[in-house]
Design goal:
Blueprint: H1 2-13, H2 17-43, E1 52-54, E2 57-59, H3 63-72, H4 88-112, H5 120-138, H6 145-178, H7 182-205, H8 240-259, H9 261-271, H10 273-278, H11 283-310, H12 320-330, H13 335-358, H14 363-390
Antiparallel strand pairs: 1-2
Keywords: Cell membrane, Membrane, Transmembrane, Transmembrane helix
Pfam families: BPD_transp_2 (PF02653)
InterPro entries: ABC_transp_permease
Length: 411
Amino acid sequence: MKTQFDRLLDRLVRASVFERIVISVAALFAAVLVGGVLVFVSGGFASCRAGLDLAGWTFCYNPMQVYYELFLGALGHPLEGGWSLTNYSLATTLQQTTLLIFAGLSVAVAFRAGLLNIGTQGQLVVGGLATAVTVVYAAAVVPGGFVGTVVLIPLGVLAGALVGGLYGAIPGVLKAYADANEVITTIMLNFVAVGVTSTILSWQFQDPNSNNPQTEPIPEYAEIPTVPVIGFGGRMDFSLLALAFAVALMIGIAWLFARTSFGYELRTSGLQPEAAAYGGVDDKRMTVASMTLSGALGGIAGAFWVLMVHGRWLKNVPSIGFDGIAVSVLAGNNPLGVGAAAFLFGVFDSGARSIGTGTNVPRELIGILTGLIILFVAMPEFFRMIGRRFRPAETPRPTRADGGDGGETDA
């Protein structure tokens, strides 16, 4: 049994891009089939006035309708009349996609460096607060209108990236110089981020005109603008410019991995730390640098959550950072794959709302259904990551230029 499992892991590790896509698509269809059976059977235990009667048993839920609402409802029901490309449901889907691209990239950068950053949520929280506070105070001295838009939006994103990066550097330093487990430190720092930001908010930055725990609203001209004519309406809390920036950043991170010495050192330190150290890569510096970059991307996610969605920082931050972990795993930590995985999660988020309004399926069952699909699609890639991390290396040990074997020598 162990031998067969090892062979399966090895097969997954060696799978080409095309094979991995085929596996993911097959897993998606399997999840849809299993989920459909689950929905149908669950309907047999629900109460309804009308349903499908089989052998004296009434089944209340129609799996076809559920999947119709899940996948097409997230796009605004394009098969129905009067559909518009700039509808609210599609805006919600793309809004979540944009934020999850940033969060997924944050996790992927750390994972590619061999580090498990579970703290993207905390980095998003502190980065979002830094963005809101910076923009609110800077707006007092920066002119309004177009000048304010050009100055305040980049300033807010920069503030989120800097504070998120500094917060991500903390577990990086602890890992590099104290050998502290980054999983534990990043998880704990999530709780610290929530407590510290809540305290700072109530102490200094609470909106005096609101009883809700939130900062003062940023000026409207400091929010991410929509694209005229072809863009979505401002009330939809989504901008194509934000999505374009997310896609550009996604491509930039992919280029960083593939075309720069920093990206090469980051990938090598994650895949073969011994070979990287032998080649002169400073593992401590790479640990801190990769966690700082990861935290900065998490902070950018928080910045866009403030600048695009709410126009202020709220105490109750959604679990975008935690969802970014699943997005990264589903994408195989590939920056370009993060976009597709984020879009799938955006579809699930928007489609779940459509199911809730278009059917009588309970929210708990919707959560189980979407979780089942994510589990099926992500598990092959998850086992592939496990195989790459723990299978025995088959490459020979590096050799020195003088003919040595690269092993340790006596002092």
